Amino acid sequence: MEDQNKNYAFIDGQNLYMATAKRSIDPWKINLERLRVYLQQKYNVSKAFYFLGYLDESQQSLYENIQTAGFILVFREHTSLMLGKKKVNIDSDIILHIMKKLYYKEVFNKIVLVSGDGDYKQLIDFLITENKLEKILFPDGKRASSLYKKLGAPRFAALDEIYTRKKIEIKKAP
What we know:
Elements: E1 7-12, H1 13-20, H2 32-43, E2 45-53, H3 60-68, E3 72-76, H4 91-103, E4 111-114, H5 121-129, E5 133-138, E6 156-158, H6 162-168
Parallel strand pairs: 1-2, 1-4, 2-3, 4-5, 5-6
């Protein structure tokens, strides 16, 4: 029962990458180890699931970095026709993963979701109703879906806020 007061984090890896390293204005890179520590210290996250579309063997070092940082890597299943496609939609995988944990009554307290994608709005509403939402963390607060504005500030935070960004950003060489 020791995980009863622990939270689980679910990271939409595609959304996180596109909203930080690939954004057009002021791109920045996240130090995954520091992000994992931040999630543990700030939100009491005991398990952090990092969802990603499987690219290919050439990305092995990326996969190892994610796992070494303390994340549980979950790949999106797709056919060989999807290989080489730019966007891999993993939203439904994350939603199903969370719902299965709730359905099978896995012992944890609340969910932290890292994404600004509006496709999670119904899931977020459900988690609020069930008192299972700790926080939704937007990788880019300015470009998060407007669907979340009605939730109110206590329900969300942005990873690109100056104080948070300083904690988790890969430091640039002087």
